Amino acid sequence: METKSFPVEGGVSVPLLVSASIPAPFRHGFSTRAGGVSAAPYESLNLGGKWGDSPENVAENRRRLLVISGARAMYAACQVHGARVVRVTAGDDPDVVKREEADGLCSDGAGLGLAVKVADCAPVLIADPRTGACAALHAGWRGTVAGVATAGVETLARGFGCRPEDLRVALGPCIGPCCFDVGLQVVAAFEAAWPGARAAGVVVETAGFQPRIDLRRCLRLQFQEAGVLPENIEVSSDCTACDPAGRFYSFRHSGRLTGQLVGFIVASPG
Fold first, then answer.
1. pTM score > 0.85 for this model?
2. For strand 104-107 and strand 134-139, is the pairing parallel, antiparallel, or unpaired?
3. How many Å apart are CA 112 and CA 114, to the nearest integer?
4. Which residues, including other chains, have CB under 8 Å from residue 200's CB and lie 6 or more apart?
5. Measured distance CA(242)–CA(255) in Å, rounded
6. What is the spatial distance between Cα 267 and Cα 113, in angstroms, rounded to a whole number?
7. Beta bridge partners of residue 126, listed in sequence order
8. Which residues in 13-40 are b (16+ Cβ under 10 Å) and which e?
9. How far apart are CA 156 and CA 236, in angstroms?
10. 10-residue block means of pLDDT along the chain (270 residues)?
11. Could you give the residue ranges of the DSSP H alpha helices within 118-198?
12. Which domains, and CATH codes, for the chain?
């Protein structure tokens, strides 16, 4: 993925990671910690409102994201580590949508922005250039086991007539298999969902170390099993937990949440 800088105003700009998989006229991006106003330890583009940051700073950071997104409104749900995907339509109240317990949003409304918040979980964006529909998914290990990727594809097919082979998918920065060591109960959950998880490289075992999960690989396989073409999936190689430049918020790295990143997609500028 490529990092691009997007101007806000007054010489201020916000860097975003963008994927070649998501075509125009969709606008999209994955945020980093840079480009905001929050002070330490939340510096600087914290987009999460639950972790002790100043509400005024979070509001300004979210305003900047809205400006560079080109969206008329930005929607996010109450994420619960599941597989429910909610449809957003023009006229929906963002304050009502944010109370929906869901880990995915979808829409075909021009100018409507869909966002998911993460800090090690995978932000996933889906676009269908044929129908103009799109989706944003929050995929932690629980949501991945629950099948949130499959749910996203099926919801787009059911709601908008999308064909899996037309979909374009981008997986943003998340915790990598280098850092995602887990307990045996997590391994058991993945093996129950995918009996071939070890053989497929989803469960990674190294002598002398705890088992690890390759969340990216698991999500890629889910999308491919749902009918998305391999060449239409781009996966970021950036690990939020051990990024050498410290560009990302990470619960695993810091031991507590000091902020959240966002992945967003807009069908077309409003």
1. yes
2. antiparallel
3. 7
4. 194, 217, 218, 221
5. 13
6. 7
7. 135, 169
8. bbbbbbbebbeeebbbbbbbbbbbbbee
9. 23
10. 93 95 96 96 93 95 96 96 96 95 97 96 97 97 96 98 98 96 92 88 83 95 97 97 94 81 85
11. 141-146, 148-160, 184-193
12. 2-175+235-266 (3.60.140.10)
Q: Which two tokens stand for residue 106?
A: 């979808």
Per-residue pLDDT at 269: 58
* pLDDT the model gives residue 213: 94
Expressed in angstroms, the distance from the first to the final Cα of the chain is 25
Q: How far apart are CA 88 and CA 157, in angstroms?
A: 15
What pLDDT sits at residue 58? 97
Q: DSSP string spanning 74-133?
A: EE--B--SS--EEE--TT--HHHHTTSB-SEEEE--TTEEEEEEESSSEEEEEE-TTT--
Nearest to 214 by CA among 262, 144, 149: 144
